[in-house]
Specification:
- This protein is α/β, with parallel strands linked by helices and 396 residues long.
- It folds into two domains: 256 residues, P-loop containing nucleotide triphosphate hydrolases (Rossmann fold), CATH 3.40.50.300; 45 residues.
- Helices cover 59% and strands 12% of the residues.
- Helix 14 links the parallel strand 6 and strand 7.
- The radius of gyration is 26 Å and the shape is elongated.
- The N terminus is likely disordered.
- Magnesium ion binds next to helix 3.
Length: 396
Amino acid sequence: MWTGMLETSPREASLAGSFGEVIENKRIIVCVGSGGVGKTTTAASFAIEAARRGKHALVLTIDPAKRLATSLGLEGLGHEVQLVARERLEAIGECQPGGSLAAMMLDQKQAFDEMVENYATDAEAVKRIFENPLYQQIAGTLTGAQEYAALTKLHAFDKSGEYDIIVVDTPPTSHALDFLDAPKKLSQAIDSPAIEMFRKMQKGGSLSAIGKTGSYVFKMLAKFVGSQFIEDIALFFNEFNEILGGFKERADEVMTLLHRDDVSFVIVTSPEAMAVSEALFFHERLLETDMPFAGFAVNKVHTSMPVDLTRDGLVEELGKLESIKGLGLQATCLRMGAETLLDAHSELERVARTDRIAIQRLKNAAPKTIRTEVPFFRDDVHHIESLGRLRGFLFG
Ligand SMILES: Nc1ncnc2c1ncn2[C@@H]1O[C@H](COP(=O)(O)OP(=O)(O)OP(=O)(O)O)[C@@H](O)[C@H]1O
Ligand SMILES: [Mg+2]
């Protein structure tokens, strides 16, 4: 269904009217958003829904809460694909025949190792790289490495053609934009002038290969960390250079993939002001870079529940409750209790009003795109039942 968004962006204009239609029409769904807003939970829900609609779905998840993995029967979820038992899906509701849900928890280090193995031509060099302490450090902590690993894994699964739909969860970055910048950042980091100097030094066989200033800097550095360490770094970067070519090529391919028409970004956000600002920023960035945007999944929304009770009215109602009667409380106690309850309620109403204002900001920025609202549940979303409830709000 066309939503007539031509006034904002041709890419948004081609969107479906619900996340259900997004699942029907897209092959890759990327859930992005700031930390803790519900990306992993939403990504799991999208994949579950796709499987229930009869698709072979895969969710690439990052560090899911243990209890979420447990409730899907994926306790030992590691860096390999695992199938979610069909009964688990059926526990949520009716499932069309033929669907399946596979899940994989991305392990950044392992994804990096796989890339090194894929791109290196010499098995001995792979061994040396893996043994190099510097590599251990880099594979785990380099800026954007986790995002990059997620994207390359996505690329590989997409190419394999094994799944009808792949849902990608993204890392808990404080800044959702990190995800889009990851491939560029990573190549820039590895390609920095300092690293280039290490490479030249190792290739040239001596410090003179990097000029006067360079060799002075390295001599000083060697005083602090030892010349063996400097040599280890230089050797590492030279061996890594070959793999780097593959890294960069892959980064370009991944960027092309993310622009495809069968890809869709879902921006997950809470109604918290900072998260909404970030979501809006990310939305702008998607439009600027002509990336396909599906809509906003607003999660953890406080809903307004107005009550028409005065303190005395509440005292009267409380007094009627059997459980309260049994306590034999004095009238002053009941009045104090009623006041506390009314205060808590008005605080919740205030939060609900603030949430509405924040959601209105999203509405103003993209009035015709999909925008679902999932309430802030009393408990974490870790059970099949709560995933089922969440599903109702996301897909109707
Ligand atoms: N609608 C909701 N109501 C209540 N709790 C929720 C809701 N959605 C998610 N949660 C809970 O909030 C926590 C964070 O959710 P989740 O892990 O999906 O967020 P995330 O964006 O992936 O976080 P991170 O950025 O750390 O990866 C989890 O404990 C989850 O169960
Ligand atoms: Mg997460």
